[in-house]
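pinging the channel bc i need a second pair of eyes. not urgent but kinda urgent?? the chain im working w is below, pasted from the shared doc
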Amino acid sequence: MGRALGLVVGLVVLLCAGPWVWAGSQGEEVTLRGKVVPLGSALRALGIDVKLDPDVAAKDLVLLGEDRAITLLFQDDASRALFLDERLRDCRVELHGRRFPGVPYLQVSTFRVERDGRFQTPEYVCSVCSISVRYPQICPCCRGSMELRMKPDGR
């Protein structure tokens, strides 16, 4: 009987807390501006003297926000170009993505880079096959190189 009561109480707690827990897992849509830089560079820019492991300092990228806040970036398909192409770093960017309660990372969904005074979307294009992709790679069709181009208006 005690075990059954415990299961019922647990179920009631889950049902009452469920919507709050499930809503939090979806994250909050945000748009952030700043510069994407390695973590070590962001810490130095804020005057924080921390000796990082060299592998971490070179690999972890963050957004150093216009408000001087540091936001870590999840590394996935949407942010991969920032991690692979240094030309997209250390310039003004606008990141659209999701933040999750209690998690210091941003899941990037799209981003734009400021070029010539306006935000543009980077894309990698094969001039032979007219294929465009989101991050640097060899052309999936002809196996040739792909060129970085900036797409105006970005969306």
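so Confidence is low (pLDDT under 50) at residues 1-23. and Residues 2-25 form the longest helix (24 residues). — does that match what u expected or am i reading it wrong
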